[in-house]
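Note to self: user wants both folds in one dump. Writing first protein now.
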Amino acid sequence: MPSLRQALATYINHNAEADELDNIQANKEIVWTENLLKSIEWKLFEDLCMEFLRIKNCDAKVTSTGADGGIDIKITDRNGIVFAIAQCKAWSKPVGVKPIRELYGIMAGERIKLGLFLTTSGFSEDARNFADGKSLILIDSREMVEAINQLAPNGRAKLDGLIRQNDYQTPTCVNCNTKMVKRTAKTGPNAGNGFWGCVNFPRCKNTMKVRKQFDASSTHQ
């Protein structure tokens, strides 16, 4: 399975002089951790992945909020043709083979050359086995953090600024694209337990479970 750098270099001319981050000043070097990555809510994780790809000189754009047909990010070449698609999952459990098969199926159906799957967790053995030998790149939390920390200081500073200028732990409603609010169930088997609810309730009844909290402290050198 090709590395992220190798796969993208096949289609993109990496020109360091064109890097938009050159004019961004970084006062401190930021060291990312897996806990910091795992604490990011799903929508902001998509934005983080998009910005990471842009730092790598990819023309990456996040698809619209909601049902995305299995595509979260599209990457186009110089002619505006989509040559790569990405799926981003802010999950705590390992990604199984089913979502990887679905991504590959979309690639085949739309004749996409490259597929990326990025997650805040990891991948099951059968998921990795399925991707092996295909134009699929699986990036787990460890690999993502390693790739971010290998960026130039200005690149890391931009990604850190992206999450710190937002409420990066409160999830976004998939239907309304607004931050959710924490509520407590009053009745039923989950009475007394907390959950995330949409601010537009009762018009929108979307809910999400409260994820395990991580120590999201990043290290500054």
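First done. Writing the second protein, which came from a different request thread.
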Amino acid sequence: MEQNNSKLKISVSDIYERENLTNESIQIQEILRKIKDEQTKVRAVANARASLESYNSPMDPYLELIYDRSVECGGDFYTILAIAGKESGFGRIPYKTYNPFGYLNNVTYSSWEEALSILTCKISQEFIKPCNNNLYCIIEKYGGPETDKEFWVSTVEHFIKNLKNE
């Protein structure tokens, strides 16, 4: 009987060793996730940069900011850029100073960095995320009554494919 009890005993060091291994596994998984996320970002920014350079876009230096804000705010990097492509030729024809999205919120921005940081998040949260990145849903909320929705969607889809180098 005593022999059976000794088999049931687990030492504190056994538990610690198991817990430590679990913590190490979790840390390794987190590191691998961060590496994968960074690789995804580097590829996405490089693909987008190739497209934006051909348009001589003033947004090019801010691609990492746009990527980070779109991820942080639940949007899609390529959709954000494609909307800017459709609305302003990637910032070459802004409706308002530093606003490449045609988003008329009666706000004037002092720099590309400020506008892109704020508007990337705003568009992600108000249009892209609630619509689950569905362009038809986005344009229903984003566009005015005069917007040719089919043309808008097809143009944004075209830019997304180009930005992804597909």
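Dump finished. Worth passing along: Residues 1-5 have pLDDT under 50 and may be disordered.
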